[in-house]
Please model this.
Amino acid sequence: MIASTTHSASNTTKLEVTNTALSLFCTIRDFYQISADNGDSGELTKQLSDFKQNLNTGLSSLLARLDKLTYQNALTGYINRIDSCEIDYLNYVANPSVESKTNLMKCSDIMESVRPLGKYLSGDKILDSPLLFDLYKNKESICDGPAMENIYKTLFTDYVIGCTVASTIERIEHGGIASLYSSECKDTMSKVIDYVKSLYHTCALPSCRSFHCSVQSIVSKSPPGSPDDLDKRLSEMYPWFNFLIFQFLKGGKTTVGGNFFARHDDGHWTRGSTYEIFFFDGFKPLTKEKHVFSLVIQVSRKLRIGLSFGNSLMNFDFHDGLDLGTYVGYAPENNFLCNDRNTEDNRQCTKYTGISSILIPGLNFIFYLFFMQRGFVIFF
Model:
């Protein structure tokens, strides 16, 4: 679900690590726009700095996947420069003295680190390295959703912090009227969002057939405590999907109608109950407001234990004295992900293939990390 904001950045809610990367990107971009218009990015940068501390960054894994030290050195150089200037910026915001301003102005070249990071996030390469997206697919083109989410959130947060530093220095140097860096950064943020959307649609296609076995693995290894728990886990694995999840006692099931297509998955038994799941395009959540396309799901009130609709909203209609009731949701356009009705789901779950393999760091990389912690940059 794509978030939007219309209120002052100083009154924003706290950024949540559990939100999907794209939801966060859109929220942060809107915050950045408001901050830039107000000429004050201090509050946003503080939030981003705090937010970054709570992330599972995935940076070590990314550096291992990049493999070559030249790529690793380039990326860590950009990030280290932004991190250093972030400290100078926050010191300046907290105490705008002559000394703190002088230290901040030493970061006047920060766009040399910010630009390549933004390009990397929007589909370009670092030197001649593999594309960021290609590092998070296995041989069957299955995307590693959790790892992608972690690294995208980390790099995007660093990018925006770098932008706030650059635009602040630009205003100081030009008397508060310059906005070239701010405009450039906003354009790049939009490019990143569009690019990640397209990547996630690409990721959705091969995960359609593997979805059942992925859910079966979750249910068999660590049964979910509720539909909300299962939704949380699935959203981490498949950030490109929306989910409607129903939990039933034995004999319970859904009956579906309407002209909105959602892929259906069932057969997941645990602790005397069963889960049925509908999944579809993550950028097309259902709403209660009537539109051209509708999804109607009929269920038994007696056999229904719980449900979770994630980012979607649905009207419900249950009449007194009747067991069966319906949930109805609407969308302005249809779902086209996983909508090939002629393609059977893979239900041969003897081998779980839902998560891509992770590269194991070699001796060179371990040697590299050892010296990076001490502030050295190594070239081979």
